[in-house]
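Next comes this protein:
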Amino acid sequence: MPKIVRGSAMHVIEQVVRLGCGLWVTPLMVYHLGENGFGLWGILVGIFSQFLLLDLGLSTSMPRFLARSIGNGDVEDLRHTASTGTVGMLIIGFIAQVAGAITWVALPWFLSDVHDLAEARSVVMALTLSSLAFWLVRPILVHLQSQLRRDLIAVAAILRVLVCTALVAWALRSGRGLVTVAWIHAFGGLGELVLMALMDRSFFPLVRWHWARRGKARELLIFSRWSYLLTTSERINFSGTDIFILAAVISSAASGIYSLGQKFAIMFYDVAYAIVGAQLLSTFSQLDGAGNRSGLERGFIAASRISVQVAVIGGGILWAVGPAFLKRWVPQQAAAATPVLLALILPHVLGAAQIPARHLLISMARHRPLALTFLVGISLNIGLTVLLVRLYGIVGAAVASLVVMSLVYAVAMPWLVVRQVGLPWRTVAWECLWLPLGRSTLLLVPAFVLVRRWLEVPTYGHIMLGIAALSAVFFALLALGLLGREERTWFHLGLRLLFKRNKAAARPPMASP
């Protein structure tokens, strides 16, 4: 429990740092690179982000199997899993380099509006090196994740973000272009790799070529086929295709404007995930590996109720403050980006509330129907996006995501937990989702409305004051137990674990089903 709380706290700090650095450097990139240059950066980064699809689900299956080995104390299986998974990641890293070379060659075919092809190809070379660093560091990261050491991962990420952001700002203000920005990120990835290797030296004794097993590879891949389909569908369905469809139907500038509104919704989800979801897969997998079914169910109920509270306050702050921030942040693009932001708030709130459900199904190897659900979602989302973009422009892409994500998270996922795990419908859908969601929303709506009206003519100082006021109201309601008795108990427990070294306080209270 102390590892979970400390790791989650550090991961939250990491996401806050990412958020702050991203908000600071993005206007600089829009100003110095122009809308076309910024849109080009978004498209190229989006292409390379899809290289994550090469992992065949190993990024999900490795933490799950490593955590289960730790949970049941099987050292031999731990070595076989670490060695086999690492070999797989190295092979994927080589394939990613080939994919980067193909992208370099194919640039003229799908970027017809790029005037300086040489610049775009230099950016691709830097991003290809970044992808290599990503796959080399991935085995170390999943090993730390399985040990619930998210705090070490966060430290390395924070250092990289701070250094890269400072260098990018310096380069832009010095008149450097997109190529310099790309190479800064590439060398930042290599630096993070070195730092992670120094932090987790215990990983390397677990990896030997002769410990890699075909049987273990088959076991990992059998589990990974559905987790791969799940993660692939999530990426393509909810964030991966919108900017490409917009670039093809309208222009790269339109995709850049869309990304400004989308950025806040994604950042909100990332922060919510950092608070409640960063270590759930490893935690649930350890409990499942130890055969602790009752602890697994209690952990899911508690995590779900906490996730709902985080989703409500985060989504409310985004609704109250987001439009005002866009006006100050990117005033020329705010009018077009604000509708995108507002349309994406609700589906991301529902997605944040269902983070524990996703990890519970994966940890218990019940994720096949979830993967098929997301596969249906991706088909619906792509078709709906193409149709609505032609009719309504960039807002159409956001509306398509709103419809599909809401159906998946509000209806399909609770039903899957009930059917696959065997928990009562009342517990999953009512007590873990709709009751706390409705109660918290009703209690906080007056504060959200007042802050949004107050920020009609915003300054950065007023925006920060509004966020602080809403946070204070939320924590006051939480501490008083108005948002739920279990939520208040877990809130006080988290404070004790963060600020006191009291091992006795590490026992979680019994969550009422």
About this structure: Residues 1-212 form one domain. The chain has 18 helices and no strands.
